[in-house]
Specification:
alpha/beta, Rossmann fold, two-stranded antiparallel sheet, 6 helices, 36% helix, 25% strand, globular, binds 5-O-phosphono-beta-D-ribofuranosylamine
Length: 207
Amino acid sequence: MVRIAVLVSGSGTNLQAIIDAIVNDEIKNAEIRLVVSDRRDAYALDRALNNGIDTLFLSKKEYSSDVEFCQALEKKMEQFDIDLIVLAGFLSILSDDFVQRYEGRIMNIHPSLLPAFGGSGFWGLRVHKAALEAGVKVTGASVHFVTSDIDAGPIILQKAIEVPPGISEKELQKLVMNKCEWLILPRAIDLFCNNRIDLKDKLVTIK
Ligand code: GRF
C-alpha cells in the first residue's frame, strides 16, 4: 500500500475524487493516511473527517518562515510514513528543501494545460480568466511533479476540453474540474501507486 498525504486549502473536490476513486478501486494499492490543510476552515477537512481520514491543520502563522512551516510538515510526513504527497488545491508554497527531499513524490493538479497559464499568481479563477482573455479555444488540466519552479515540474497527465463560446470564468472552472481534474488526478495517483510512472531527465513516461 502506498501511503498518501493530501494537502489542501479549499473545498476539497479533488480530495473527494481521490477518496471516491480509492473506494471504487479505480486507484489500487493506495490509502490516504493524512489530509493536511493550511486553512482551518477548509471544507476539505470535513470531507476527510466524514471519511474517517486523519486530519491536521498547520497554521502558517505559528511559524516564522516557510522553511519552518515545511520542517513541521516534513515531521508529520515522517510520522505518518508518507510515500506520496498530493497537492490538491494547496495554496502554500513549499520550501526548496522540502521539495528536494520528496523529489518525484509530490504531485500537483493545475487547472490549465501547462506550461500555459502556470507559475506565480496563476491560481483559482485567475487561471481561467487568463485563458479566456487569451482567447484559447482549448484548455484543460495538468498533473505534474512538483519542483522548486512553480507549476513547471515534469508533466504526468493532461486532459483537454474545448472552451465553449461565451462561457464565464466560473463556468469554465467548473467544467475543467468536472471533465479534467477529477479524472486525471486519481488516474495519476493510480499510475504512481502501481509503479507505472517513469521519471527520467525531467520527463515522465507511462509504462
Ligand atoms: C482546483 O482547481 C485545482 O486545480 C487547483 O485548486 C483547485 C482546488 O479545488 N490547484 P478543490 O479544493 O479540490 O475543490
